[in-house]
Write a sequence for this structure.
């Protein structure tokens, strides 16, 4: 019979790989041993490591690391989908970002991945009716990472936010599965309107750096939004839009633009 540790490793290949990478990292750079051990090797599961990492990053004089860690542990314990989404985000970042060579990199060093995981805990709090605490999480994520995602927004799995500087995702925005976006992307409203007022991004969309998608519009699955574009109208699926305001300039060019990350306009 397999030991408990072996059984856990057999059903969680992502965490097994992260731990193996962490052990090699300590050998290769002993000066990072404390960071790697405290953030990864001291924890039994990826969920526990993420709760610790989020709490360490977001702690301040207003909210202690211990309280934030308890919140994270509670969220991951009560909602297994959070851990599944984190694994999908982690694999997506490793596969799509050419600067990412190991799974441990996003956990330790990439603010885009860290910010999305902290948002997911805040979104869980929001759905539990704990809105003030969710707003606090949003505030700290914005202050620490420069990523402002409203806790009511809905974000799917396998999401990669590369560089993650100046990201804004509004309250009624919806982001599907396997979406990739670069820095300075805004999914916002068009003014002071109330109600459902933010974009709906379907699965497999790639959003280039600096793009602004504004209003209650829909971006069809597997489409591309070119860098610097301002999108004010619906985007059909599997197309490429570019410009200010954005216009359709052709097809997406491949079946999965968010995975290929091809941003060249032919």
């Amino acid at each position: 019979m397999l030991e408990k540790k072996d059984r856990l490793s057999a059903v969680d290949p992502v965490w097994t790989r992260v731990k193996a990478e962490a052990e090699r990292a300590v050998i290769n750079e002993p000066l990072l041993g404390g960071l790697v051990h405290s953030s990864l090797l001291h924890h039994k599961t990826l969920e526990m490591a993420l709760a610790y990492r989020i709490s360490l990053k977001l702690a301040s004089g207003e909210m202690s690391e211990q309280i934030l860690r308890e919140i994270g542990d509670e969220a991951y314990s009560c909602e297994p989908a959070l851990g599944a989404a984190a694994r999908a985000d982690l694999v997506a970042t490793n596969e799509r970002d050419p600067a990412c060579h190991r799974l441990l990199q996003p956990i330790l060093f990439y603010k885009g991945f860290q910010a999305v995981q902290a948002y997911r805990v805040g979104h869980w709090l929001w759905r539990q009716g704990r809105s003030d605490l969710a707003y606090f999480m949003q505030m700290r994520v914005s202050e620490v990472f420069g990523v402002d995602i409203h806790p009511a927004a809905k974000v799917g799995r396998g999401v990669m936010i590369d560089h993650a500087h100046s990201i804004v995702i509004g309250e009624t925005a919806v982001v599907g599965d396997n979406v990739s976006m670069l820095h300075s992307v805004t999914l916002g409203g068009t003014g002071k309107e109330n109600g459902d007022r933010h974009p709906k991004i379907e699965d497999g969309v790639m959003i280039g750096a600096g793009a602004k998608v504004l209003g209650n519009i829909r971006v069809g699955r597997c489409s591309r939004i070119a860098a610097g574009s301002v999108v004010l109208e619906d985007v059909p699926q599997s197309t490429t839009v570019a410009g200010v305001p954005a216009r359709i300039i052709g097809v997406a060019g491949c079946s999965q633009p968010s995975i290929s990350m091809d941003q060249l306009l032919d």
Summary: The first helix runs from residue 4 to 11. The two ends are 57 Å apart (CA to CA). The mean pLDDT is 94.
